[in-house]
Amino acid sequence: MAEVLVYVDHVDGAVRKPTLELLTLARRIGEPVAVALGNGAADTAATLAEHGATRVLTHDAAEYADYLVVPKVDALQAAHEAVSPAAVLVPSSAEGKEIAARLALRIGSGIITDAIDLEAGDEGPVATQSVFAASFTTKSRVSKGTPVITVKPNSAAVEAAPAAGAVEALSVTFSDKATGTKVTGRTARESTGRPELTEAAIVVSGGRGVGGAENFALIEALADSLGAAVGASRAAVDAGWYPHTNQVGQTGKSVSPQLYIASGISGAIQHRAGMQTSKTIVAVNKDPEAPIFELVDYGVVGDLFDVVPQLTEEIKSRKG
Amino acid sequence: MSLRIVVTVKYVPDATGDRHFADDLTVDRDDVDGLLSELDEYAVEQALQIAEDADDAEVTVLTVGPEDAKDALRKALSMGADKAIHVEDDDLHGTDAIGTSLVLAKAIEKAGYDLVISGMASTDGTMGVVPALLAERLGVPQVTLLSEVSVEDGTVKGRRDGDAASEQLEASLPAVVSVTDQSGEARYPSFKGIMAAKKKPVESWDLSDLDIEAEEVGLDGAYTTVDGAAERPARTAGTIVKDEGEGGKQLAEFLASQKFI
Ligand SMILES: Cc1cc2nc3c(=O)[nH]c(=O)nc-3n(C[C@H](O)[C@H](O)[C@H](O)COP(=O)(O)OP(=O)(O)OC[C@H]3O[C@@H](n4cnc5c(N)ncnc54)[C@H](O)[C@@H]3O)c2cc1C
Ligand SMILES: Nc1ncnc2c1ncn2[C@@H]1O[C@H](COP(=O)(O)O)[C@@H](O)[C@H]1O
């Protein structure tokens, strides 16, 4: 059976959820071979094996942390040469897309980004994408070279599928371009203790209607009652009420949770672009004409300062 | 020595219009009004600021696109760019990201550059890969997705806000930079700027000017194939209630019925 390369997104050996989802999709096409790079690479093996990786190719070097993108492209290219896979799958993060694109160019292949589903086809893997702010769904495939495809978080279920997961050292020679862009400083993002926005099963977002940074406590309280991540519209972010890392939409994160709760958000096309594929959508807005209501499964026309605290209380009491 | 900045700008269908596909499954660019991609306005803005801070600099805006893409160039010129290059050729119809990066890279090399500045992503394709592809093709450092950028003494520095960390980056020129919408509001063209733009030079190049064969680009040269496009089924109309004092509780009831609580 053909092998499929899966690029592993991990933090010091802790594998991030989208990579496990990729393993589920990879198994539809062939046998997943994982590529883990940088500090803690070998520590990823047990988790990857549990989810179907037959082999785990690892390599650690200071270059991965000290220089931008290119060292990882060099390594993935080395893995491509070593394995000759049927496809290369990469998580659709900003960095993932850049790595994938440069790899595709080097190996003479096409690239598809932001797939939301993947299946085997007669002429290679078929990717489903959601385009034009999720108003259309397309089916595409790479028609030249080894398909390189990046896949969005929450596109498949994480499934246990124990496999050998044999750790093998990947041999990598860095290109002379690898050290072109130096990372001279790094400030890790402070953990909020809440789930990662793109990975969360539930996202609770606030917009301009929240009216101020201090009022975001209401949104956070609702999020915490549901174990959810917190999102914000660009209007709320631009006003300085919430960090840009939490922005949902075209120029922020694209989320696809089981449940999305929008409060005080009108539902502009650029906001929709980042949340329209959520399974269930709920909104609280005092304007009955707000476009967000066109998307909702359940909407409450009302003042969020009344509705949201009442909802939070009710959830807490139901959960006991 | 003059600093030569090339800004890549894309002409895109208006996101607030009714965007759709043409019969050949390429993006329909005829039925929806087009404009300079808003995200490329940030690239033009940063280029102008870098040029203002430099002793001697020249900002060239470059687009690959149909006849109407000139509108995008005009807008960038009226913001303050010095000159424009329009790559236009019937054979370009249907070109994908790999092909677009080839055309842009050849045009950038022909124009001559020290610094390329791109937007973070096009608002129609939203791939966010062209800047990385340009760096790969040109063989220069990529310093991408910056929310802060500066150039001094032949070095570009900037801040990249990633998922896990915020990184400070540094590279020597020549380099390819892309900037996010966090990099700073783009200026509006002034009346004077709009008038001045009418007299600024716009060069037109076709594929033969760039030594690119028709087979390398367009729908036939594409490395990807779109087999189908379907309009997303309209969401079934949801339940909408007016809050009469129990809205929060009613919402909780709905969430419970869907097993979220
Ligand atoms: C290139 C580009 C990229 C963009 N990218 C993004 C993006 O990534 N994400 C994004 O979100 N936007 C993005 N935008 C901006 C987008 O167009 C909208 O401006 C933005 O989404 C509006 O945010 P909002 O809904 O919070 O604010 P508004 O549109 O002002 O809506 C506020 C809503 O709150 C309601 N409200 C007010 N008070 C209350 C109350 N007390 N109780 C209940 N409801 C109340 C109002 O009725 C209104 O509907 C982008 C725009 C451009 C041009
Ligand atoms: N046809 C084009 N002409 C000029 N610049 C482009 C074109 N396509 C993409 N770009 C540039 O590349 C950036 C990223 O585009 P994309 O990878 O398509 O999302 C854009 O913000 C532009 O700066």
What do you see in this structure?
Chain A: This is Electron transfer flavoprotein subunit alpha. Chain A: Keywords: Electron transport, FAD, Flavoprotein, Transport. Chain A: One of its GO terms (biological process) is fatty acid beta-oxidation using acyl-CoA dehydrogenase. The complex is a heterodimer of chains A (320) and B (261). Chain A contains nine helices and 17 strands. With 320 residues, chain A is α/β, with parallel strands linked by helices. Chain A folds into two domains: 3-169, Rossmann fold (3-Layer(aba) Sandwich), CATH 3.40.50; 202-319, Rossmann fold (3-Layer(aba) Sandwich). Chain A has a nine-stranded mixed β-sheet with strand order 9-8-7-10-6-1-4-5-11. Chain A has a five-stranded parallel β-sheet with strand order 14-13-15-16-17. The mean pLDDT of chain A is 96. Chain B has a single domain (3-221), classed as Rossmann fold, CATH 3.40.50.620. Chain B has helices at 38-53, 70-79, 97-111, 130-138, 191-197, 218-221, 247-257, and strands at residues 3-8, 11-13, 34-36, 57-64, 83-87, 115-119, 142-152, 155-161, 165-172, 175-179, 202-205, 224-231, 239-242. The radius of gyration of chain B is 22 Å and the shape is globular. Chains A and B meet through helix 5, strand 7, strand 8, strand 9 and strand 12 of A and helix 3, helix 4, strand 7, strand 8 and strand 9 of B. The structure holds flavin-adenine dinucleotide (FAD) and adenosine monophosphate. Adenosine monophosphate binds at residues 8-10, 37, 39-40, 43, 63-65, 97, 100, 104, 118-119, 121-122, 125-131 of chain B.
